Amino acid sequence: MKYKRILLKLSGEALMGNRQYGIDPERLSEYAKDIKEITETGVEVAIVIGGGNIFRGVAGASNGMDRVQGDHMGMLATVINGLALQSALEDAGVPTRLQTAIHIEEVAEPFIRRRALRHLEKGRVVIFGGGTGNPYFTTDSAAVLRAIEIEADVILKGTRVDGIYNADPEKDSKAIKFDHISFDDVLRKGLKVMDTTAFTLSQENELPIIVFDMNKKGNLLKVVSGENIGTKVNL
């Protein structure tokens, strides 16, 4: 395997499948099988998941809700998604731990870096919920932060498109895909990979990002194996 330890970033919307909101059990099961497949090769897997399928703090704030309250609700949504993914992984026979940035001891472990590293070394999948634990920070920022803390080799951003394009491929049939692009080029071209805070943190720590289609069966294993899937962003 090309990568020994990865941080997989999933959006909350990815769990919806074809639904308008909530969690699609079939999509969850598919993800669990794909993740199990790579753990069986010895890859150490950590996951950060968003909460947009349940609640998005920014959307709440735009409707008049206090932004801090909205972001706390969004953090709880990521914990709900983390519990769902943990259940699906354990149903598939994958030992899993859920750690949260906000303390909910009856539900999950608090995030402790040394404990997270020990779980990974023992072959357990570690899901990080609750974002960074702070309002005004996205789960993209949480993904990069946790990846740096656990010394991951790469961030794999699983989306519904097969990489980074110069335009939205769902709207523009002539959009051109990049197989490889530098951090500087992403910024210069104004491409949307992650929010600016997360992207800059990744760049400063020389942590590569691969954006790929998570919904295509077998893609996760191909990415971890080093196949040219999706778009790789590095220095």
From TrEMBL:
> Catalyzes what?
UMP + ATP = UDP + ADP
> According to the UniProt entry, what is the EC number of this protein?
2.7.4.22
Q: Which GO terms describe its biological process?
A: 'de novo' CTP biosynthetic process; UDP biosynthetic process
Q: Coiled-coil regions in this chain?
A: none
Which parts of the sequence belong to the Aspartate/glutamate/uridylate kinase domain?
Answer: 4-213
Q: What is its main location?
A: cytoplasm
Pathways involved: Pyrimidine metabolism; CTP biosynthesis via de novo pathway; UDP from UMP (UMPK route): step 1/1
Q: Which residues bind UMP?
A: 51, 71, 132-139
Q: Where in the cell is it found?
A: Cytoplasm
Q: Which keywords belong to this entry?
A: ATP-binding, Cytoplasm, Kinase, Nucleotide-binding, Pyrimidine biosynthesis, Transferase
Q: Which GO terms describe its cellular component?
A: cytoplasm
Activity regulation, in the record's words, is: Inhibited by UTP.
Question: Which residues hold ATP?
Answer: 9-12, 52, 56, 159, 165, 168
- Mention one GO molecular function: UMP kinase activity
Describe its assembly: Homohexamer.
Describe its function.
Catalyzes the reversible phosphorylation of UMP to UDP.
Which family does the record claim for this protein?
A: Belongs to the UMP kinase family.
Its name, as the record gives it, is Uridylate kinase
